[in-house]
């Protein structure tokens, strides 16, 4: 269980935060002053500190300096009011992971904390690796110890490592092309952590979830009162990533108007918040990811060619999991170790049947799907071995596809039709008697089928399923597809 220390002299805020985070699985300790917070840090180790910027006996700057000096592996998030936002951005440059502005919103808090802990874990494990960009072997060691990163010994993985090693020390903008779930964000993190910017922020942004109205504010920020609903100053992602790396996922989903504004920012290396006349100089490396061929999008008039060439200083193709052979089981074993640590289990191996299923399955959700399957199987396994009955039906009943070699996709996938599944095992038929489980299973299979049909493009999937994108995200999370 991850341990969090909340330092806030507003007792009500600390209590509410503590209750909320405890309900979400964290071990929480509170302190009402900077000095008592330091005492807690002396007595026990914490994964993360949430510290209010304004304290009676000190301030966030001094607390950050002390924590980073004495406890450098502990992550820090600053809680700030409107008037302190500019200082909070400075604190991020000093080593704070992020800031949360008041009033506090539960989803924002949980998302920021989760990302901070994941980043802390990746950086701690990366510290054991040899000197940055020393060799492909060094990159591999760091990749193995990160949560979701693509690892392996296959020819495709070795080529991926070689490209990461080649581009990491440069300032080139990078386009990562690969299917959804293949690990594009993890490749971007690996590039960042092996660059000279590794001590600076890595800011990830999902362009696929942005509406046209919100995109400009998310990218560039806004001043208080600049438009209806702008109740406080907001720092944009470009400004947050200044000095470090900005990762833009599903960049092909951006509207044409936002692409034009993005092009100006990339060209001029300056950003201006909405409602402000002040330009801010930028030193940001941009890495973008897409699951579609942007050249095709240019030909169809959906993506600007000039922006594409700005981004495409270096291109990396991330192979789908099904093309990586023995890497599948290497990854599965890696995720099994992580799941054991997370769940406090002692599952040590996969049965021969499970290994055969994993090697035959097409993995449309790629590395993300494999991780979710292994975590689920680790949780429900009764012994020390993951058996076939611990796998979802779409994997345990999977048959090798019948290929139509005349129809190739952008990724080299062959279109195919699955053969009829095997008959359900008795245990599975018994589970179907539970109406709730049957309904959840049907929903799982429907969502998965539609996602496969649209190559895991969540915007298109939501349209086909006749739900909004946020609802789809929530359903995917509920059934462990995300």
UniProtKB/TrEMBL annotation:
Superkingdom of origin organism: Bacteria
Keyword Transferase on entry: no
Domain Sigma-54 factor interaction as annotated: residue spans: 150-379
Modified sites of kind 4-aspartylphosphate: 52
Response regulatory domain segment(s): 3-117
Spans annotated as Disordered: 410-433
Keyword Membrane: no
Keyword set, alphabetical order: ATP-binding, DNA-binding, Nucleotide-binding, Phosphoprotein, Transcription, Transcription regulation
Biased composition (Basic and acidic residues): 424-433
Compositionally biased region (Low complexity): 413-423
A Pfam family the protein falls into: HTH_8
Family annotation (InterPro entries): AAA+_ATPase, AAA_lid_NorR, CheY-like_superfamily, Homeodomain-like_sf, HTH_Fis, P-loop_NTPase, Sig_transdc_resp-reg_receiver, Sigma_54_int
CDD domains: AAA
PANTHER family: PROPIONATE CATABOLISM OPERON REGULATORY PROTEIN, TRANSCRIPTIONAL REGULATORY PROTEIN
Annotated protein name in UniProt: Sigma-54-dependent transcriptional regulator
Source organism of this protein record: Mucilaginibacter ximonensis
